[in-house]
Automatic annotation (TrEMBL):
<protein>
    <submittedName>
        <fullName>TRAP-type C4-dicarboxylate transport system, substrate-binding protein</fullName>
    </submittedName>
</protein>
<dbReference type="InterPro" id="IPR018389">
    <property type="entry name" value="DctP_fam"/>
</dbReference>
<dbReference type="Pfam" id="PF03480">
    <property type="entry name" value="DctP"/>
</dbReference>
<dbReference type="InterPro" id="IPR038404">
    <property type="entry name" value="TRAP_DctP_sf"/>
</dbReference>
<dbReference type="GO" id="GO:0055085">
    <property type="term" value="P:transmembrane transport"/>
</dbReference>
<feature type="signal peptide">
    <location>
        <begin position="1"/>
        <end position="26"/>
    </location>
</feature>
<keyword id="KW-0732">Signal</keyword>
Amino acid sequence: MHKKKITWIVGMLALFMFLALSPAHSQTKELRVVGSWNSLTMYKNFEMPFWTEVVPAELGLKTSMTSLSQITLKGPAVLRQMSMGVFDAVHTVVDYVVDDSPALAGLDLPALATDIADARKVVEAYRPVLEEYLARDFDAKLLSVAPYPAQVIFCRDRINGLADLKGKKIRASGWTTSEFVNAVGATGVTLSFSEVPQALQRGVVDCAVTGSLSGYSAGWGEVSNFVYPLPIGGWDYVIGTMSQATWNSLSPDQQAKLQSLIKEKLEDPAWEVTKKETQEGLDCLSGGECPHGTPNKLELVPISEGDRELAKKLLVEAVLPAWSKKVDSSAVSKWNETIGQVVGFKIE
């Protein structure tokens, strides 16, 4: 072969290798995205359209989409897989990953924020801490935080407030909720979401905690008689994350645009819808106007001021000390300096 032709071929191979390894080329790959539960509004109305329509149109990035409902990974495994390069972006519930990063549990504690306005203040205060621990423990970049509807309590037998939970078996929505119900004098029980209706029907549990609209949609209102809207299970925040490697492969302009778009198209509107769906869930459960189907006839138990104070007392005296034992002193200090300032509590 002619020497000049060999030189040209070698040069072209070098160029192809450079292009294959360059950041600009890596940006043309298909982003593999895992959304949250595909039966719920968060996925259907926000996550899926954002990644399959907005990102390709606005950033020119190809994407493929699946959900927590469709993969077999549980708990922190989905974020672990993302850090290994299996996925590029993941939306998952904070409570699912706290075993591998206990500091994250400080965001969503029982009765910490009893309305959605306070919940937003808590999230904004703690956001820098979430960013730090997600980067440290999962090599992940935080993109968004949005709540599911308030996690309320469903019961078969009459309750008039927190005191009536004493002695009952309650399906909790996470370990911090278990700490709370145990402090009330009840027993926290671990059950998967799908097992709850049968467990309530058979008396395996007396009460159970989940989102108001989630419970209605899953038929919990057909096997319960009372719903208590104090969010003793918190808000079940969904975090949107991206692997640090994928994030770093984007240009600064793409990074800025992605952050702006996810706030505008996903995070902010999801907060507004959650506020609406929390009330719609309660209306659907208690015989009110229900845009999601035929309403149930549960009794909506009013929240007393005494129960609001008792919930704060249990949070301060039982839940926060239990959480502080799972984290180091630095995490406690960061909680005091952020959420603690918002809610007026301090962990000693």
